[in-house]
Design goal:
By secondary structure, the protein is mostly helical. Helix content is about 55%, strand content about 0%.
């Protein structure tokens, strides 16, 4: 499973969108997909945070 993007990258990308930069430009500059950017924006709108979900679906044993 790929590693989550850093919190710093998330904050910088969303700050760029908040400044008015086009989402397509932000996604190219930060090398993230447009869908990822949209998901971060939605998560921030719903939860107030962009922190990734940690240990989602993991099953720890013993």
């Amino acid at each position: 499973m790929p590693a989550a993007y850093s919190d710093d990258l998330r904050e910088k990308a969303l700050a760029a969108v908040d400044r008015g930069d086009p989402k397509s430009h932000v996604s190219r500059v930060f090398s993230i997909s447009r869908n990822t950017l949209d998901l971060w924006l939605k998560r921030r709108e719903v939860t107030g945070s962009t922190v990734p979900i940690r240990h989602y679906g993991s099953r720890r044993c013993c």
